[in-house]
Amino acid sequence: MSIRLKKILGPSEILVVSFGALILLGTGLLALPIMQGPAPVSFLDSLFTATSAVCVTGLITVDTPTAWSGGGQALICLLFQLGGLGIMTFSTAMLYMAGLKPGLTSHLALSGALGSAPAGDMGRLTRNVVLYTLILEGVGAAALTLRFAGDYPWGQALALGVFHAISAFCNAGFSLFSTSLESYAGDPAVNLIVMALIVLGGLGFLVLSELIGRIRGRGRGRNPRLSLHTRLVLATSGILLLGGAAVLWCLEYWSGGDVSFGFWQALFASVTARTAGFDTVAMDKLSNASLLVIIALMFIGASPGSTGGGVKTTALATLFATARTRLKGLSGANIFHRGISDKQVGEALTLIACSLLVVMLAVVVLAVLEVNGASHGHARANVLAHAFEAVSAFATVGLSMGVTSGLSAGGKLVLIVLMFVGRLGPLTFIYALIRRSHTPRHQPAQERIMLG
């Protein structure tokens, strides 16, 4: 990126431009006949697939194993690998490996992708991101290859293992099986491996780095203290994963549905809703209550600086801490005997509010474009299905009730925009739009209003 362009673009704008450029490049390559299967794929479907891959979503309008050639599938895998780690992560890693250091703008943009970190630690963190990712994906690929080798020839098993390991760690949700992982619904090995990769990819690179540092510290006789961020991520993720699994299992048990929904299915559904997109049970077979719970889990999503999307676990924890502190008649937000700054409380509330607004607007547009022609009773069910797809796209999850492939061109464009905005986060776009705005010299007088 030239010096002149760096002066024009801020950190948020660099992230937007980088991801947009990769999507356009991926679209152009996927549109080539050599990347496609026997039947031609339209340009819009190529754009949708490239956006879904780069934004590590997993929603598809065409069947991945049949619509794309081996080269096309490899390209899709490369796109969600790049998207999962982030363009700035890779570019900065290359700078450090070449003995150079990024400027302040690149450092800020990388911090936006990975989370806050001291400037002096950014080089080490970037190298660790690439190293940990390759190690974890490699171990997962080897384990899945051994499992798939019992069902497929070794060459095909290796391709399946590598593709699904990268897809799981990047929380992408793309699968080379037309029915995702439904044929392995009761397989402990596949479930455990994929869930482990999803969880590790969704914790965030800063958390992984801190946990590994703590393990090394214990081995050297030290017991370094975990930061508040890491403790919030671990506690919130654990509660959501286990609590979500318990709630989903109870709801499906009480609904008396005809779908087999046991321990593995409930746990996997809770894990994958936190923005992975694989499924072992088709979403359209679940009860309405379970779908609403999954929508909530998808909206919350993974953790900051991770490969996942959503409003993030720390935003939910900050909201909970604020409410808990205020209900006690105290000011601020306190949790784990630590305080969270008013600025970060405001950012968390703004993120959640903006995300709700974006999703609600998208659902309304989808209802207008896709549902109006249906009968009154059928339309009600369709609204839930399209709301599910909208949240799945925004939170870059990839779970689907099966309506994405049947969307009109307008509906597909809505989901494309949702995936792009959701991957980078609404605040990134807001900061990009208001970066040049000037802070007023004088703040207006404050006046009390009635609430509740």
Brief summary of the model shown:
About 65% of the residues lie in helices and about 0% in strands. It is an all-alpha fold and about 450 residues long. The relative contact order is 0.11.
Describe this structure in words.
By secondary structure, the protein is mostly helical. It contains 19 helices and two strands. The protein has a two-stranded antiparallel sheet with strand order 1-2. Strand 1 and strand 2 form a beta hairpin. The chain starts with a helix and ends in an 18-residue tail after the last helix. The model has no long low-confidence stretch (mean pLDDT 83).
Helices and strands in order:
Layout: H1 3-8, H2 11-30, H3 43-54, H4 64-67, H5 70-85, H6 87-97, H7 104-114, H8 122-148, H9 154-169, H10 188-203, H11 205-219, H12 228-255, H13 263-272, H14 288-300, H15 313-327, E1 333-335, E2 338-340, H16 342-371, H17 376-394, H18 409-424, H19 426-434
Antiparallel strand pairs: 1-2
Helix pairs in contact: 2-3, 2-5, 2-7, 2-19, 3-5, 3-18, 5-9, 6-8, 8-9, 8-10, 8-11, 9-10, 10-13, 12-13, 12-14, 12-15, 14-17, 15-16, 16-17, 16-18, 17-18
